[in-house]
Amino acid sequence: LTLPQSHGNISIPVKRQMFTGTALGLISEHDYLIHVTAQDDGAMDLGPDDDPNLRWQTDTVFIRTPDITPPSWEGYWSKNGTIENVGGTHFEIVVQLNEIGTVYYIVVPFGSPVPSNLDVKTMDDSNLEVACGVIDIDEQFMNKTGPVMTVNLELHPECAGDESFYGLGDAMQDRYKGLDDPVAGFYGLDGLGTDDSKRPYCSRCPKIRSETAYDVYIVAEDDGGHGIPSDVALDNKNLQLLSQKINRVNYPWYLASVITADITPPEFVSSTPYGIKFQGSGFDLVVALNEPGKVFYCVVPIASTGVDPSRVQIKKGQDGYNDWCPAYGEIEVPEANVEVITTVLGLGNITREEDRYFVYVYAEDDEPTGMTMFTSPNEGPVQDPLMIETVDVMAPLYKSGYPILDLPVSTTGYGAVITTFRVLAALDEPGRTYYVAFLPTEVGTVHPGAYAPTSEQVKNCQDYMGNPAAVCGTFANPPDGIVTTHILTDRTTYDVYIVSEDDTEVFSGGLRQRGPNLQSAPVKRTITTADGRAPLFTYNPCNSVNITYCTSNLESYIGAHSPWPYTDATYETNTTIVAAISEPGRVYYMIVAAADADPTLQQVVAGVAYTDFKGSVGTVAPLKAGYIDCPTANTTCTESVTGLDGTTPYFVYVATWNAATNIGDGDVLRTFRQNPTKMVPTLITKYDQHQEQYSNVTINVLENVAYPRVTLSAPAVLYYVLLRQGAPAPNVTQVRYNVDAFNMTAPDIRDAGGDFADNSRSDASGTYNITTAYQEHTFATIANLTRKTYYDLYVVLMHTDAFDAKAPDHLNSLTQENQLYDEFSRSVTKFTFRTQDLTPPFYTPGYPNITHTNGYNLTLAVHMDEPGKSYYIVLPGGSLAPDSYDVRGCKVVQGVTPLKCGTIEMPRITNTKYYKQYETMITGLTPETIYDVWVVAQDDEGAPTYGGTNYTLGAVNLQALPTKLPVITTSVDARLSNLTVSVGTLQPPFNPFFSQYKSYPYPDNYHYTLFLTDGTSSVTITPTAMNDESIDRITINGTLVKSLTGFTVNNLVYGKTLLPIQVHAGDDQTIVNYNLTITRVADPMTYNATLERLYVQLDNGVRLNATDLGARVWPYCVFGCTADSPAMCTGANPSCVMDANQTEYIAYIPQGVKTIKVQPYATSPNSNIKMYTLGTSGVEYPGGLPGYTTGVNPATHPTVNLFVLYENGGNTIDLVVTAANGDQLTYTITVKQHGPGVYPADAWKPVVPTTAELGVRYGPNYGTDDDLTTFVALNPTLPRLNVIPDLDISPPLWLDTFPRLANVSTSSVDLVLQTDEPSRVYYLFTAVGARTPTSREVMQPFLRTDRVTNGTALAEYSLTQEISHKVTGLSTSTTYDIYLVAEDAALDFSVEYARNHQTTPTKLTVTTS
Predict the structure, then answer these.
(1) Which one-letter DSSP state was computed for residue 502?
(2) Please, is 224 exposed, middle or buried when counting C-beta atoms within 10 Å of its C-beta (0-12, 13-18, 19+)?
(3) CB 172 within 8 A of CB 201
(4) CB atoms closer than 10 angstroms to residue 142
(5) pLDDT averaged over the chain?
(6) Most confident region among 119-123, 951-955, 990-994, 1280-1284 by mean pLDDT
(7) With 284 labelled, which of 160, 456, 799, 882 sits at a CA distance of 20 to 30 A?
(8) DSSP H or E segment with residue 1212
(9) 31-50: per-residue pLDDT in tens?
(10) What is the CA radius of gyration of the chain?
């Protein structure tokens, strides 16, 4: 049955009159069948019933409901209309409806108020619309396009005004022609209607402008009702209630519906283009546009113009002849009306003169942008060419070969110091040149010359850091050079940086904007200044390139001056000048009378008569003048000067000279002064009678006093220091101030540690003023010297004040007074002498002596107070005494010929305070013999000369009496006369004279053997020396043993023991070795460390034997057992002993036992047994193993408390058996308790129930075995009743969370089980839903023929600990019911199994994967 869409009735109060009714609930534009029947009111019936009469037949009417809904927008892109093909003055509207109809639109400025639906349909929005129109939709669900474009003013001149209107176009007139319908309220174009608000009327002239935003509003209307029958259809058209703003696809809703395209080219603004900042190679081009875009330019030389380039050519960079422009490009203009400056380069590369160019430019905008349909920008016309002109911006160029550094000049010694060079620079145009000069410096430092300065820094006389340069200058071009004027260092390389600029003028305005053109980088040239230094005397410390004035310091305590020049081999009429200079050159000299004025440097070099500088003295004629050639630097050069008169005091003046003609005094590199070096007076050589030779210092010397003398060529002051020979030499300054090399004065506070001849006296140094020349002067009397001792005398001379200041260039420029030379000797004169020796030597205490004696030789040692010789002779003991000459001459003494004689040389050792011991060996003596050794000493006076001196020594000094040394040679016999033992017999018998038993190849080794029985553990050995000197020189096994004294060896080991016996003779060199080998024979029981029987006694009276403890039963594990003892080794069967090869045993002990006793029995009566239980640290356990208590003797029946054993962390007992020979064997008993509840505090405990799978919670060992929870079968020898204190009548219980399943796979599953007492579990698998089995059926599965699989889960711990039992053989993706029954291991009082099982099976269900 179908329910009607609508139903109802119409009351007909009057017959044959039409009445209406309304059917509700219908749908617009749908076809319906109306079924109608009639019924009267029954009042006219004649019958007894007054019921209404229903017509039994119905009538059917077909109707179609009219369209009363407005159309809807359709399409994906045109869902609400869209805009396409946007141009500058036109675009297209695209719409789609779900039915045939009409779309009205109006175009208004962006942001206008939203119009109503009638505003859009009547195309009237208070004159805001820019354009309006109608789009006919003649096909549903299809896109329809309506063009919108600006009016053509040529066709419609009436639209020229801003607010222009015109009539409807032809198309629109056709659209509305003949549609007058007064009933519908719509009137056509004939104007007859009166309701203008209903008339579509678009008379505004459409004016769409480029680059303008508009909103487009649309509204749709369908084509009418279409109802059936038509006389009942209301065919009014349906207009949408709201207008719709078109939003273009892919643009946000808040933007305009359309933005028309830009179709106008850009225009230049702000008087652009124009040029600024003109350079030699370019300029800056300035442009600005009225909109963003680009500017293209091409620069063409005026000489190349004639045909203007097109836009295409400009863009390519070509002129009108298609030749490349020297400069071209494009300029981005990102903003309107904002100037953009671009630098144009590449011009003016041929000449530095001004060049003219035409600049051609045109612009294009940044189209296409936004909603436009165009694909290319709008291009403007080519602008009139812009004429520009470049300027001279090129720096000047140097002519070929320039710049140049030349003409270095340096001089010294002529009254001024000069060092210069010339800078030349020739340019190709007028300008100016600048320079700076620096000393070369390593890069990385902060010195001025470390890096090159910039051109600007050179121009500003600065270094690279901007600091003022020490040397700089400038000159105009032309002329082209200048000579430096700064103070420079001679013979030095300079880095000179040169830069030039032209004379280009500067304009504040106009085209030229650049000033003088400075070269971008300076040119570096290097020059070495000329040698402006005079040679220095060698080793002068002022020889430095950075020093221009530095006098050597004769006052220096470190010798900071040259040792040259000096005079040597000077006699009355001649002298030798010795010099060395720092470079090849000459040393000029001039000898002038002491009374005359000093010459200048130039006068010394000239070598002729000269005039005093002040003119106070007439012409001075030198006594001698000349020069010394020094062709090699730092090499001594000499000149002998002869022909002096020997009476006129004189001074020697010297000047240095080099090939650069620089002259100086040898102490100063460069100076404006002109004085030469005025050498100190000369020591004149005299013949020394004491030395028997010529010397510049003579001396008269005795044993303890000396008188030194000198003769000089002119008056002077003499300074001297007398030091011990070999002491460090003082320098001239130290001698000048009477101190030694350590700057100490005499008397020296260091006393014996000082270097003076006598540190306690002041006359070891001093000063003496010599006022006359050519006369010998004794300048000191030096006393308290030591005989036969060498001394070093150091002498220095110095000018006296009267002869010091005569040099004109020492004139003080302020006071016009002469200044002092302060010149003294450049080198110290050293003179070495020795005091005389008139006393013979003597031996130091303890000498002579005999340091070593043996049977055949002795060693004689001597030690004297001075160098010399010791003579000796050897006579038989008791001979008459010889005299000193007998000993020295090795003569026969009273008829006795010396057995030995000889000499011990004690050589001279200079500057040695103590002499070492000297010795000799006297050989060929007879052992055990008495001798007299006589020794006498003699010094070396009269020996050859040495140490640089050359004089005759006095006669030698011999001791008056010789010294006697009696001596006895030692024994060489190291044999034993006898060797005895307290037990046994030596093999072979000892014989001191029998050498058959010597070991080859050691002839002094003797071998003997002693055999002892098992019971003998000690022996005493007694040696007897053959010679009395060996009584205390015997060792046995390294221990010193006196002759005839016993040496006892205890605790002899079994087997061999080697005892070395060594005997030393009296000479401590001869040795005889005896080797005694002691062999102790052992009984077999001595080596036996085994147990014969082993018992463990429990506190319940049970005794476990070795078989109970794990030894296998007879006959596999014991020796001597018979069939009468099949299961044990006991005292009742003593012939049955344990197998010694088994050392590991296990004692299974019931839970109720608290203590045990271990009873071991050793096989050998000589063995020792110690028992160790695992616990605290012990010290007695063999090998010092940790963790054991001190061992006890099990024979004392010690009790082992099992609780204490466990508390100490162990369950083992070790029995260490030690044989008589020390061999050991360890037996280990492991204690394992069994039964419920055997869980020591620190051992295993029942696992707390958990949902964790096997191996998860406690790691990989989760659920592994634990020895202390093992349930074992009872040993047959144990009384079973002591295990069952009460009967167990309860079945086992599952612990919480058990049983459960784990590791389910396609064919297997793990049963995870744990009970509260030792148990086993029976299991039965059935198909899911099968009948539940009884406990008996689970335990006896053969009763169930429908079983899938079955089995029993057992474990070493009998399920008191969690186990996992895997069941296999299952089918894939199958569900099973699993039934489990647990059964314990209870016993009855008959010690028979009385197991208790669960009466109801436990069910689990599993589905395999």
Answers:
(1) E
(2) middle
(3) no
(4) 11
(5) 80
(6) 119-123
(7) 456
(8) strand 1212-1218
(9) 888 889 988 887 655 555 66
(10) 71
Q: Which residue has the tokens 């070093």?
A: 792
Distances (CA, A) of 1357 to 1263, 1269, 1272, 1282: 10, 6, 9, 21
Is residue 1405 a contact partner of residue 1370, using CB atoms and an 8 Å limit? no
Q: What is the pLDDT of residues 909-939, one digit of tens each?
A: 544 444 578 899 999 999 989 999 999 999 8
Cα 23–chain centre separation: 98
Residue given tokens 């400025």 in the structure block? 109
Tokens 């053969």 belong to which residue? 1342
780 CB burial (10 A radius; 0-12, 13-18, 19+): buried
| Burial track 1368-1377 (b if 16+ CB lie within 10 A, e otherwise) | eebeeeeebb
Residue with tokens 């296409």: 368
Question: Angle at the Cα of 251 (from 250 to 254), degrees rounded to 5?
Answer: 150
Residue 1131 to residue 1140: CA distance in whole angstroms: 17
Q: Within a 13 Å sphere around the CA of 1263, how many CA atoms are in the beta-carbon half?
A: 19
- CA 1126, chain centre distance (Å): 79
**What is the pLDDT averaged over residues 866-892?**
92
Q: What are phi and psi of 450, to 5 degrees?
A: -70, -35
Per-residue pLDDT reduced to its tens digit, 481-492: 888 878 788 888
Helix (H, G, I), strand (E, B) or coil at 1033: coil
Q: Which of 159-173, 195-209, 667-681 has the highest mean pLDDT?
A: 667-681
Helix (H, G, I), strand (E, B) or coil at 1030: helix
Q: Beta strands 1144-1150 and 1224-1234: pairing type?
A: parallel
Higher pLDDT, 1222 or 638: 638
Residues in CB range of 216: below 8 A, 6 or more apart = 81, 83, 93, 105, 106, 107, 108, 148, 245, 246, 257, 258
Q: Residue 728: how many CB atoms within 10 A of its CB?
A: 10
Q: What is the DSSP letter of 582?
A: S
Q: What is the largest CA-CA distance in the chain?
A: 217
Give the strand pairing for 868-876 and 930-939. Answer: antiparallel
pLDDT band for position 1267 (cuts 50, 70, 90): very low
Distance, CA of 694 to CA of 801 (rounded, Å):
31
In terms of C-beta density within 10 A (0-12 exposed, 13-18 middle, 19 or more buried), how is residue 579 classed?
A: buried
Q: Is the pLDDT of residue 169 over 90?
A: no
CB-based contact 776:811 (threshold 8 Å): no
DSSP three-state, residue 1300: strand
Q: What's residue 585's pLDDT?
A: 95
For residue 726, the model assigns a pLDDT of 83
Q: What are phi and psi of 685, to 5 degrees?
A: -75, 135
In eight-state DSSP terms, residue 736 is: H
Q: How far apart are CA 525 and CA 534, in angstroms?
A: 27
- The H-assigned helical ranges of 777-896 are 884-889
Return the structure tokens found at 6: 């609508």
Grade residue 908 by pLDDT with cuts at 50, 70 and 90: low
Q: Is 523 helix (H, G, I), strand (E, B) or coil?
A: strand
d(CA 588, CA 629): 9
Please tell me the distance from the alpha carbon of residue 571 to that of residue 873, in angstroms, as a whole number: 55
Q: How far apart are CA 342 and CA 362, in angstroms?
A: 15
Q: Is the peptide bond before 516 cis (omega within 30 degrees of 0)?
A: no
- The predicted-structure confidence for 952-1004, as pLDDT tens digits, reads as follows 445 688 989 999 999 999 998 889 999 999 999 998 888 887 654 444 444 56
Segment (H or E) for 920? strand 918-922
Cα separation, 253 vs 1072, whole angstroms: 127
1069, 1091 Cβ separation under 8 angstroms: no
